[in-house]
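Friendly challenge for the regulars: who can give me the C-alpha cells for this chain first? No prize, just bragging rights.
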Amino acid sequence: MKLLGPKSISTGLSYLFLLLFILFAVHTIFELFAFGIAYYNWTNSAHLFSDFIYVGNTIDYAFPQHGDYTYFRFKYPFTDQQMLTGIFSKNNFIFHTFQNIFFTLFFAFAYKIFKKLSNEKIFTEFVIKDLKKFAIINLLYAPLYFLIWIFIFKANLETTMLLTSFAFLFLGIIMYFITALFKKGYQLQSENDLTI
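First reply, four minutes later:
Bragging rights claimed.
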C-alpha cells in the first residue's frame, strides 16, 4: 500500500486523526462545562449534575488528601468512569484547559495535513501553511508546558517536564524542516508545471 495519495496510508491516518480530534474536542468541551458547573455548585451550594460532577472538602476516591483543600471529581456522563480528579483550583483549571486545547489543535492540524497528503498533488500552499501552523503550536507548547509547571504549580524541576518539553520542541523543529522541504517541493512542482 502506498504512503501518500488517494487510498493510501495517509488517508487512513487522516481518519484516525479526525476521530481523535472529535474525541478531544468533545472531551475539552465537557471538561470546561464540568469545571463551570463545579464552580457554580461550590459557590452556590448547589448540586447540579451531581451524578457525574462532584466538588467538596473530601473525596471518596483513591486520591491523596492533604490539608484543607477543595477536591473535584468528574465522571463521564451516564457512566461510572472517572474522567478527572484533583484539587479544585484555578491552577488545575488553567493546566487542564491548556492541555486539552493543545491536543485538540494538535489532532486537528494532523488531520488537515494528512487529508491533504491523500490528494494527488501533495505539494500545495495549503499543506505548507498547515505544516507551519503545526510546527508553531508544537514550538509554543514546549516552553508553555514547562513554564506552567514551574511558575503556576511551583513544581521542582523534574525529568518528565524536561522530556515532555524537549519532545514537543524537537517535533516543532522537525516540522519546520519538513515545511521547508515541502516549500522547496512546491517551488519545483510550480516550475515544472510552467515548463510543460
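Strands lie at 53-56, 71-75, 82-87. The chain has four helices and three strands. Your move, everyone else.
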